[in-house]
Here is the input.
Amino acid sequence: MNRNDHHQGRIARVWTGRVPDAKAAEYYDYLLSDGVSKIEATPSNRGVDVWTRSANGVTEFIVTSYWDSMDVIHQYAGTDVEQVNHLPRDPEFLLEMEQKVRHYTVRVGRAH
Here is the structure.
């Protein structure tokens, strides 16, 4: 492993949500236009990944955004950094409203 990988030491902020397959394409477009675009426009953001998988009629979305430190996440997310910043139309799509995001230290990041 190369300790100088360019994501190494950053913080990954991870949110997950589940929608019925029938609404997945519409939610994906909405997520990109109203969620991911805002994250990417934040000067302290270092990138965003969106992963999906479909199983048993439900599509799971995982959104991972990358930040240099918890301090910059505080600036973006506010005092309670684990609180989900739901999009206005999330209740129309999501099967449940997740209340917390998770944060991880990126030890190796070679994808970007």
